Amino acid sequence: MDERATNGRDRNNVAIQLDVDGHPKRTGTLVTATAHIITTVIGSGILSLPWAIAQLGWVAGPVALVSFSAITLFASVLLADFYRSPDPVSGRRNYTYIHVVNANLGGRHSTLSGIAQYVNLIGFTVGYIITSANSMVAIKRSNCFHKYGHSAGCHTKNNPFIITFGIIQIVLSQVRDIHQLSFLSVVTTTMCFCHASIAIGLSIAQVARRPHVKTSLIGVFDSGDKSAMDNLWSAFTALGNLAFAYGFSDVLIEIQDTLRSSKPENKVMKQASFVGICTSTLFYMSCGLMGYAAFGINTPGNILAGFGFFEPFWLVDLANLFVVIHLTGAYQICGQPVFAFVENWMRVKWPNAKLVNEEYAFYIPRYGVFSLTLFRMIWRTIYVILTTLIAMMFPFFNDFVGLIGAIAFWPLTVYFPIKMHIEREKIPKFSFRWLWMQALSILCLITSIAAAVGSIGGIIRSLQAFKLFQSVS
């Protein structure tokens, strides 16, 4: 297919370059795609990994982490081939995950994939708000602990920080689409490397200072502090946290749609997935294992904001600042597909409505021409406000992260890629290849159900002692 760019103009007569399909010219590369993946993967999930390893122990924890990594990479390689159909190199583009499923499976599969994708993306954005607010609070509390001592309460309300992060996202959400966020992804990728490296470094220092913490080969099941059922719920929630840590399949197709066509997009995306997932796993393993070694069975739910680390306070503050900057970008990577879905639907529904289609252009120094529609501004503002309110109502970090991970992992990361691959390759039923792929899918389904049950149980327990909109750290 000829992918040469053509010249066009937007509604404000501003010259733009277009790809052959009429979309703005794609400029993404292996570097920007990898940055998008790392920004999405190494999100708030990395902060809960030491806690998750602590629940599962030295044996099951690393095995589960590597297993989630391998399954995600395998499914991502399969999914990358469906960006174009029917041919993965020269076929018609599918711009979103829903388009991919509709083109290859159609019918109810398309509807189910859409519900799963957008529910999960909304959940991710809520999770990023909770995590960012926790890090903002941690900066304030860290300074308080340094000034008044580690035994001081220094309790702080979370809501003002949740609202602050929401205001920032209202502004950033006015950026038109994911194609214009490449620079933000590079910056946030740098930030995630920084805060992950600090967490690993602080954990190593903690191990050197206090080497005799209690750890276990079998995690919470070696602890007599809680009932067997509570331990089981914690282990299930930990699996959900690990699944959440690899949740980028929701936006894989949208990331692939940013790539220029000078090389086949599926090949570049497979390379980006390999580099991004392997890099993420390296950091995950280092942070998870070192965090568990540092704190043992008392590992906090959030390694940077749970105050296992107090000193040097300025380094803890810096790490949490990096988390906030990182998740500022991650919110946008996950939010933009939701924005685009609603806006595209509105344009089809009301093609002549000025509220939806009329573009207003503004020149911003050092940025260039910035355009918006009234509907885009209103809808995206409402979306950010709603996700902010949900974060204020359910600010339970580990349980919420575990629930979203459980909901997202099986259908989007495993089921649909395997189902589409079997259909396209016409793999015979009950052949060896068909059997092991179906067995993998069923195993992941059981894991997701268990993680969801454990997380819901944790949220119910937390709600029993929680006052609505009165969250305090």
From TrEMBL:
It is found in: Membrane. Keywords: Amino-acid transport, Membrane, Transmembrane, Transmembrane helix, Transport. The chain crosses the membrane at residues 30-53, 59-83, 181-205, 232-253, 274-298, 377-394, 400-418, 439-460. Residues 27-460 form the Amino acid transporter transmembrane domain. Pfam families: Aa_trans. GO terms for cellular component: membrane. One of its GO terms (biological process) is amino acid transport. This is Amino acid transporter transmembrane domain-containing protein.
